[in-house]
Amino acid sequence: MPPVDLLISPRWTLPIEPEGAVLEGYSTAVHAGRIVEIGPTAALLERYQPAMHVVRAQHVLLPGLVDAHTHAARSLLRDALPRGPLAPSLDASLRRLEQRWASAEFVRAGTLHAITEMLRAGITCFADTSLFPEEVARLAGELRMRIAVGLPISESPTPWSEDAADALDRAATLWDAHKSDPWARLQFMPDPAGTVTRDTLERLRRIADQLDAPVAMRVHDDPATLQAFEHAQGERPLPWLGALGLLRPGFVALQANHLLATEIELLARSGVGVVHCPTAGLRLAQGVAPLAALRARGVCTALGSDPAMAGLGTADLLAEARLASLLAGAHGAAEPGVPDAHAALRMATLEGARTLGFDTEIGSIVPGKSADLVCVDLAVSGVGNATRVAEALLFNGSARDVSDVWVAGRAQLAARELCLIEAEQVAETARQWSARLRTGEQR
Questions:
Q1: What are phi and psi of 144, to 5 degrees?
Q2: Which residues contact 9 (CB under 8 A, 6 or more apart)?
Q3: Where are the domains of the chain?
Q4: Nearest to 215 by CA among 357, 363, 70
Q5: Beta-carbon neighbour count of residue 330 at 10 Å?
Q6: Labelling 259: which of 3, 103, 149, 226 has CA 20 to 30 A away?
């Protein structure tokens, strides 16, 4: 029998591809970080000799979750935020705190802290927006965690760059350093339209076209900024960005909460992806993306926790998928584009991977793909038959039920214990930063 590194035998498997498939009594064989075969457990035990056999009797195996929009380093800012009801001003408060405290040390500590929480929640890949993106890219390689690293482009001075021209130069240097990096995929992340000049965006478009680089940008996220832009420019941001040539495959529209029918059509025609952040949109009173309408037009839609890592609790992508599904079906579940349980889980996995450009590697349990996998305990859900597994996972599951996580076949979480990260040391560093932030101690 040929050897394999790992055989995972859950009760159920949700491979995501083909869509809607639920496999009961199947196992997944993994070797050299790749999925070798998915098949009936008895058959694979006869065919392979696994170095390790993981049996999870009441669990479901699915691809690792993909959080397509985070501010990971801001996880250190939770205790420094004012208490009370959250409002749109939270984003401004976070930016001010980040401007004051951001450093390479801060970003590294905050991102590592966030990664420990994400792994415990079954998230194996995420897109990040942080200053000092070189620290995030470095962590990706050290921890073997897939990260779409945002390269921040801002007209205003930040602790990372003096202005937009300096930010673009720094971003280009980082692009060259990581263009072949298997763990860190870089994307340009300009500030929202209206805060970045036309000249900067035109230069960015030329660079992105030359490098075939993705661009991610907040668009139409809240009514106030949308109205201010329309008043200043005489048109709305999306058509304006389209005229600049930025709307193309590889462009990611973050949030996109307020869209006209013509703008949804523009996104669909341009091949743009959308990252839907329902919890953040509701908690910050910004609104939520018209998910059903976007999906009905074939727009690739992923899920993001956005500022959940700072002030809104820890990332729970199953909760985001659940909320997205419920909100989309609020006016009738039969409406075109409303995601059922399988489609919502697909948004949290394969559609997230596709939006970030990782879909040839991850996002579904398919032979040849990387073994980025998650086991979730469904014992408390009382699932009686295979047809209800996706519903049980979406509507009863949570981050707390994640038991095992593998990235490229290597265990990152086993029986709810982190394998490669010193959790207590990371937590202590986070506590030290929280104390510094509360007392206002300077760096």
A1: 55, 55
A2: 27, 41, 53, 54, 55, 56
A3: 3-63+371-408, 65-356
A4: 357
A5: 11
A6: 149
Query: Across-strand partners of 193?
Result: 196
Residue 8's nearest CA partner among 31, 16, 22, 20 is: 31
Cα–Cα distance, 187 to 129 (Å, whole number) = 10
Determine the Cα–Cα distance for residues 332 and 326; give it in Å rounded to an integer. 10
Same fold, 3-63+371-408 and 65-356: no
Choose the CATH number for 3-63+371-408 among 1.10.150.20, 2.30.40.10, 3.40.50.1820, 3.40.50.300.
2.30.40.10
pLDDT score of 443 more than 50: no
Residue 287 bridge partners (DSSP)? none
CA–CA distance, 407 with 169 (Å, rounded to integer): 32
Give percent of the chain above pLDDT 70: 93
The partner residues of 59 in beta bridges, in order of sequence, read: 377
Q: Both ends of the chain: CA-CA distance in Å?
A: 59
Q: Does domain 65-356 have CATH number 3.20.20.140?
A: yes
Of 230-234, 352-356, 381-385, highest mean pLDDT: 352-356
CB 333 within 8 A of CB 290: no
| Cβ partners under 8 Å of residue 333, min gap 6 | none
Of the candidates 343, 315, 324, 313, the residue with the CA atom closest to the CA atom of residue 124:
315
- Number of Cα atoms under 13 Å in the Cβ half of residue 7: 23
If 0-12 CB within 10 Å is exposed, 13-18 middle and 19+ buried, where does residue 334 land?
exposed
Tell the residue number behind the tokens 């037009």, with chain if given: 297
Give residue 81's pLDDT.
Answer: 64
CA gap 17, 363 in Å, rounded? 9
Q: Which pair of tokens denotes residue 6?
A: 């790992």
Q: Give tens-digit pLDDT for 18-39.
A: 999 999 999 999 999 999 999 9
pLDDT for 74? 87
* DSSP secondary structure code for residue 14 in this structure: -
Q: In 10 A of CB 174, how many CB atoms?
A: 17
